[in-house]
Amino acid sequence: MLAKQRDAYLAHLRVERGLSDNTLQAYRRDLERYEAFLADRGVADLADATRPDVAAFAEAVGTGSDGKAALSPSSANRTVVSVRGWHRFAAAEGWVGGDVSREVKPRTVPKRLPKAISTTDVAAILEASSRGEAAAPLRDRALLELLYSSGARISEAVGLDVDDVSLGVGEESVLLRGKGRKERLVPLGGFAVRALDAYLVRARGGLATRGTGGPALFLNSRGGRLSRQSAWSILKVAADRAHVPDVSPHTLRHSFATHLLSGGADVRVVQELLGHASVTTTQVYTMVTQDTLREVYALAHPRARE
């Protein structure tokens, strides 16, 4: 019964909320762990689960007391949120008498500042990605320029088709599809436009003849759509060449947001560019720029220091 109820909830998430396959897989892992936990406690139907069951599970995912790996605070909280969503859905569907998970709250996790690198380091990585005039360097530079210019997630970038990019004068932009397939149109800067134009004119055609990448914008050496793993590797190689440590695709996204806010962009504009559903998510970046503001204040204000 639990498996049937779980699958019905996942189908609801896919159809009604339009969640991506990756997100749905994360939900499935969370709920399957909860199912196993309930089964060990003799619970075979969600209607028989109690608040103590949910609370005990919330404790177990953080400590590993259910015999499985202990999760980080953020991952444990995500799992609890998944379980609460399932119980809430079951109550709304009338499967259970009430939502026994309502009072089980995720733990408060200290906010971690997003990692951003300097504009100098970004420039060094971009330069290091384009050594040579072969197809791969032209593609790599175009990919990384697009990531930094638009703040795109790596999955959004590799999912792009050629028609999603506009390079005409006054129309320089990219159509990104974020979580839930929500679309947003993001402007592209001059460096990204030139890199993309060079790749499309001088490299993509040759790559396309090697396979069946179809309309995909970024192609691999066999002519197929570039994967997330390959895109991550492209960035890692460029960062290693530039001697910039601990860089991931999300680092460029964080840097995009941080540099915009440092340059005076409004937080709600950055929210739209990043595709965040809530401005609260974006406001974590303002914590980064506060350090810069304090430094400027300390140096510039006549009465900042004794």
Could you outline the blueprint of secondary structure elements for this entry?
Elements: H1 2-16, H2 21-40, H3 51-63, H4 73-93, H5 119-128, H6 135-150, H7 154-158, E1 165-166, E2 173-177, E3 183-187, H8 190-202, H9 204-208, H10 228-241, H11 249-262, H12 267-274, H13 279-282, H14 284-300
Antiparallel strand pairs: 1-2, 2-3
Helix pairs in contact: 1-2, 2-4, 3-4, 5-10, 6-8, 6-11, 11-14
Count of DSSP helices?
14
CATH class group of the largest domain: Mainly Alpha
Overall shape: globular
pLDDT under 50 segments (min length 5)? none
Q: Determine the structural class based on helices, strands and strand pairing.
A: mainly alpha
Q: Find the CATH topology of the largest domain.
A: hpI Integrase, Chain A
The value of Rg in angstroms is: 23 Å
SSE sequence, one letter per element: HHHHHHHEEEHHHHHHH
The CATH superfamily of the largest domain appears as Intergrase catalytic core
Known CATH architecture of the largest domain: Orthogonal Bundle
Span between N and C termini?
70 Å
Number of domains: 2
Strand content: under 5%
Strands side by side in the biggest sheet: 1-2-3
Number of strands: 3
Q: Summarize the biggest pleated sheet.
A: 3 strands, antiparallel
Tell me roughly what share of residues is in helical segments: 55-70%
Mean pLDDT: 87
